[in-house]
Amino acid sequence: MVAFSDLVWDEQSTPEQWRTGFAEAHKAWTQFSTAEALRVAMYDWEKVGMDWFAAALREGHGRLDEFDERFKQAAEAKRAPDRAFQQAAQDALGTQHP
Q: Residue 4: pLDDT band by 50, 70, 90 thresholds?
């Protein structure tokens, strides 16, 4: 695994090169952190909706069965993009697990 410091500095680096590399890495990390925070918030919101849906089904409220198939399809459709995001993040950060 490559260390962060190896990406922004080596023995031949000038202080200006180090600052430039650090700024680029910081910008990338900030963008990733923002995207990750959004993904976590969206996941949490999805869990709230799923908990509500499950409770409504248990209690027999409404005509939820009309929406059940569409709900399941939407949940399944989200799985691949979620996994792709996580894999891309792991690849970008060098945190893949063997």
A: low
